[in-house]
Structure formats: C-alpha cells, structure tokens
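lol so apparently i was supposed to do this last week
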Amino acid sequence: MSAPNNSYDPVEVTPLHPDEVARMREEALSAIEAAGDLDELKEVRLAHASDRSPLALANREIGALPPTAKADAGKRVGGARRDVGQALKARQAVLEAERDERVLVEERVDVTLPWDRELRGARHPLTTVAERMTDVFVGMGFEVAEGPEVEAEWFNFDALNFEPDHPARTMQDTFFVESEDSGDSGMVLRTHTSPVQVRALLGRELPVYVVAPGKTFRTDELDATHTPVFHQLEGLVVDRGITLAHLRGAIDSFVGAVFGEGLRTRFRASYFPFTEPSAEVDMECFVCRGDSVGDPDASCRTCSSEGWIEIGGCGVVNPRVLTAAGVDPEVYSGWAFGLGIERTLMFAHGVRDMRDMVEGDIRFSSAFGSEI
Ligand code: DAH
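anyway here it is w/ 3,4-dihydroxyphenylalanine bound
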C-alpha cells in the first residue's frame, strides 16, 4: 500500500483510474458469465472477488489517497465490487439450478419400470432344518454318513432284516427300479435312510457314531400330510457297552436343541425289523405342554390336544443287522433312530401343509429368510 499523499491524484494511480476499474469490472463480469459450471465459478470468484483480486488490491490503494479523492475512488471501486458480487451471486444461482436440473435427469429412477432383477437364491427351509438337526449330533461327536438314493434292495431291506414277504416291499410303498431286460433290477428308491446304517458299518472302523440326513421315497400321493419324496435323519451308534440310556440322552439333547430345553420325551413300544426292542419317540408338545389334554376349552393345534408329538422311530440295533454288516453282536451293541425332517420343519415352524414344502413357491421359502 502506498503512503498517504495529499497531492495524490487517484486518476493517476493506475489501478484506480476509471478506465482501469471499468476494465477490471468488465473482465470480472465476462469471466463470471463465461463460467460454465460451479467449479469454474469458484475459480472465477478466487480470481476476481477474493482478497487478492485486482479490484481488492485497487481498493487497498484508496487508503493512501488524500481525503478529497477517497470518496470518488471508493465509489468507483465499491460500485465495481458490488456489481461483481451481485453477478457472482446471480451466476451461482443459475449454475446451481442447472446442476439440480441435470442431476434430476441423470439420476432419474423410473420406479414404474418392470422388475428385471433375478431374485437371489436361498436354501430351502428343509435343507436348513436338516442341517440344524444334523449339527446337534455333530456337536455330540457324530460323523455325517451318506448313501445313494437309488439303493440296492439288499441294503434297503435284506440287510435290515426285512423278511422277503414283508409288506413294505410291495409296490404299495416302494418305488422299484426296473432293469431294461428282466424288469427286476434289484434296485429301489430307498424307502428310508436306514440302509445307510449298513453302509456305515461296512465302510468304517468301529466304533461308529454317525448321522445320515437324506432323501427318501415312498409311493404316497402328495397331500397335506404325505409326500412321495421326503427326508429323514438316520442315527446309528455301535460301540461296546452301548445302552438305551445313551439313546434317550441323545434324543433329549436333540429335542432340547431344536424345540427348547426341558421338554420331556417318551418311548412307546413299536416294531421295526432292524431294531429289537423298537420304539416310537414322542416329545412333549412344546406349545401346550400337555395342558390341552382333556380340557375341552383348550384345544392345541400343534399336538391335536394329545400332549405329545411323534418325531420318529428308534431301537436297539437287531443283532441280525450287525451280523449282516460284519459286526460281532457278542462284542458290540448299538442303537439307531430315524427322525422325520419334514415333521420337524412342520412342528418347529408351524407349517401345516406338506405341499408348501415341495411346490417351490418363493413366498413360502422366503418367509424363512435368505440364508445361503
Ligand atoms: N426307517 C424307519 C422308517 O422309515 C425309521 C426308523 C425306525 C429308523 C427305527 C431307525 C430305527 O433307525 O431304529 O420308518
């Protein structure tokens, strides 16, 4: 800044000369007009309206003028700066409006467009329930065993001590696989997961602690309570000194983990060719806990007011099965169980109709979440 000088003529201080001020003003205004977007305008603002702009520098010169000249120069420079400020403001508004307009067009989303996105697949609830059931036993140290869905009759029936004329072998229950020539292939679609017991014993070192989840087939019509393709979880323990007490403990742990702690279980005497003795396994109804039994005002849909829910079959492995699988029944003993996976899903999640599980309607499966 120049020192005060009374004989100072503002017209002779170049930056304050009217032509020069007008030029700076014009230059600023045309730069503002030329700014094509907000970034450019920011540059223009720095160049023409900041503290280091020519007009701001000219403004500083005013202080050094004699008082008589100050007002005139101040008016000139102040007017120019005001014009520049207003022009900046106006251009800013225009450019902001343009930007908003552009963003609205560029980022436009037509929410009425048809949906062309593929739904992300998710595992079927039967799969997740089967895994949860399996995990309970894996947590107790069991291994997972597998067998084929198209199975030899020998594994599905003979080795499991089904007599040749056992009714379950007839066409009523079993899908037989025809061979091209004789018609009798000796193969069936396995009617239960129990043949995996024999495969596990033949293929593993003793002791054996396995569970086998899998698909099973019977010639049932599809309705609310039957399906020709269903799933079971087989369990087998063969070791020295194995008793039914271990079986009850394992079943209780399963029921506690899947349906809730503290539910009682019971065994009802039954018959299976491959176990002796055999039992049906029931668990206490986890909804009414038996309170609905005999109370006409309290009907329970889950257990039909019976207080108990059947979840599968079990028993002590028949020595004939051990023998068929090459295990000495004098040394080893064991137990087995078969649990229905559909039944578990139905009870654990209140599914009322088996058809919902097989129809593949996404509205059914998605209610169980989209676990991959
Ligand atoms: N396989 C039998 C069924 O499908 C269920 C079963 C019962 C399995 C007793 C077992 C068992 O392992 O010990 O009806």
